Amino acid sequence: MPHTVTPGTEAAPAPRLRWWTELPLILLVYAFYSAGRLLARGDVSGAVDHGLTILRFEKALYLNFEHPLNRLFTREAWIGIPADFWYASLHYLVTPAVLVWLFRSRAVRYRAARTWLMTSTLIGLIGFTLLPTCPPRLLDASHGFVDTMAQYSSYGWWGGAASAPRGMGDMTNQYAAMPSLHVGWALWCGVMLWRHGGTRAAKAAGVAYPLITTIVVMGTANHYFLDAAAGAAVMGVGLLLAPGVMRTADRVKARFVPAATPVAADSSAAGSSIVSAGCQTSAGERIPRQRESRFGAGAEPGASPQDAGDEAPAAAR
């Protein structure tokens, strides 16, 4: 059945998101996330107990991949140093770059992608609060881990406090290890590159980036394997919740922000349009063979010989 639109009720197009509203929103969420990490430090002894529990569980299931990787990174500086740079920088560079790329060239997909990332980040903050966890590098040396960030700190800007610059270790929460949002954010970037990159290189980067990040966070002894798995799980939960978050945001916006005015159609054109058999026509437009069937070829009610055309017979005298 043909779909007709009542003149004057056409919906206005959805407004495009603007960078001057998006940037403050992202900065606000990141500031809330960073402040939450600092406030959720918890008890150090409890964090160490959680870390040891995870390590024992992994050993029981032969999942402690961080041990051999950390020995490799510690022994081979040509692997360990680039890995430390990877851990200390790409987390804060690639994720914003992908966000900007989506905003500029994939605007239709941007809002859902941004909401997924933010929702997952806030879920991760809940994990840091409820389960402060000592990373492998801060466990007693008897457990067999070496802090590669401290070992190779002379090559970079970081000190002994994870990826924080020297002298700024007190501004980060070293016990926010469960879940690993390094892995979670890298997985989000990988999905975006795979789905929207459009080239083989982009898809390859989408696969490589989260995999290498997972290896790096374990080899540098910043996370356990289960931290990485939990980071991926958090992104999965965030993906499921993101549609509901967007619907809630739309309802709140509709309540407090005036709705857009519908696009008004030209009243004169709307009033003079001819509609027949469910088809809408413009003013004066003929439907093929409609008038011929009623009045004969070339004739209309009250038409003069001149109106009928050159081939019409002259009127009898």
Fraction of residues in β-strands: under 5%
Strand order of the largest sheet: 1-2
Q: What is the H-and-E element order? A: HHHHHHHHHHEEHH
Distance between the termini: 51 Å
Number of helices: 12
Instruction: List low-confidence stretches.
Output: 1-14, 264-276, 290-317
| Radius of gyration, CA atoms, in whole angstroms | 32 Å
* Average predicted local confidence, pLDDT: 78
The rough form would be described as globular
Q: Report on the biggest sheet.
A: 2 strands, antiparallel
Which percent range fits the helix content? Answer: 55-70%
Q: SS-based structural class? A: mainly alpha
Work out the number of β strands: 2
Describe the 3D structure:
The chain is mainly alpha-helical and 317 residues long. The protein contains 12 helices and 2 strands; from the N terminus they run H-H-H-H-H-H-H-H-H-H-E-E-H-H. The chain has helices at residues 19-39, 44-60, 66-75, 77-105, 107-130, 148-151, 181-196, 200-219, 225-256, 267-272, 290-295, 305-308; strands at residues 274-276, 279-281. Strands 1-2 form a two-stranded antiparallel sheet. The protein is globular.
Briefly characterize the structure:
This protein has about 325 residues and is an all-alpha fold. Helix content is about 60%, strand content about 0%.
